[in-house]
Amino acid sequence: MQEDILVIGAGIAGLACAQALKAGGMNPLVVDKARGPGGRMTTRRRDGWQADLGAQYFTAREPAFRAQVAAWAHAGHCDRWPDQPVYLEGRRGTPVADGQERWVGRPRMSAITRALSAELPLRTERRVTGLVPTDRGWVAEFADGDRSGDMPRVVVAVPAPQAAALLPEGANTLHAALEPVRMTPCWTVIAHFPQPLALGYHAAFVRDDGPLRWIARDSDKPGRPPGETWVLHAWADWSQDHLELPGERVAWTLLDAFAQVTGAAHRPAGYQAHRWRYAASARPLDAGYLLDREAGLGLCGDWCAGDRVEGAWLSGHRLGQAITG
Ligand SMILES: Cc1cc2nc3c(=O)[nH]c(=O)nc-3n(C[C@H](O)[C@H](O)[C@H](O)COP(=O)(O)OP(=O)(O)OC[C@H]3O[C@@H](n4cnc5c(N)ncnc54)[C@H](O)[C@@H]3O)c2cc1C
Question: What region holds the Amine oxidase domain (predicted)?
Fold first, then answer.
């Protein structure tokens, strides 16, 4: 089957877009620079333990996304996370009483994007470095020097700064639309402890001064292997100020902060730091998606639709429908 549209990025936005394109009768090809799909919904798996590295949970408000989440839940790809987080201040946790229903991938966050990508043609470890206009649409250039065939249309489903770098110089309207978007970083540490920490809460928004914004006991989420696994997220400002610090130093700084805010006495048996250079959109657009029909170029992602997993899915889904509709 001849592919007629290239989707760059196998995060939730790119995959939702490709799914809608396929449902509308097109033949998408999805490419991603990483070793697997998922983007910021990825899960890191270590020897005998695992942790969700990016998105911690998601909410579902819009009817279209609620229906999709219900279908994923029915298929066993996601589940409600019944544990309510707390606000943590001075080692005291106050329940977050926001009435929010929180969802997680099951048995890991990446289960959702794995399930989506299983039904789509996906090529991984394909970093696109540029898009060249041709008589028949576009050719994508890859980092290894390879080039795609002619594609009548292209969807760019990557964080805004990376999208701007891929757009050809002549795409002035799209460049102008992207310009105001600002994305912020997040240093993350995942850690596995040999003994239970017995902290009395499952996840917390940290309100003490210091580098930590969020901590979560990943092993409490539905379907996870037993153990004592935590995810620590730093504030965006702290992450920006320490963006180029070696991962090992960041890991110990955040682990020390974790011991400080929780009072946990044990040291981890295994840990890893990860830098998300483009974690969140400080100023997302409310356009939903960007589409230049004449050029055959579309853009989607969380930064187009209010940030977060739901926004990313809606952005990709609606762009796919707009292209085929
Ligand atoms: C630390 C952290 C915590 C978060 N917590 C939450 C949360 O609790 N709840 C929530 O709803 N959301 C959360 N989010 C946000 C959520 O993860 C994102 O909004 C959503 O996953 C974005 O999806 P996306 O498809 O738009 O982008 P991405 O997931 O970033 O996907 C883009 C894809 O494009 C690929 N790519 C980039 N450049 C290229 C290239 N040149 N060539 C080929 N491929 C390329 C990348 O490898 C990636 O797979 C969090 C994010 C982070 C980082």
Answer: 103-321
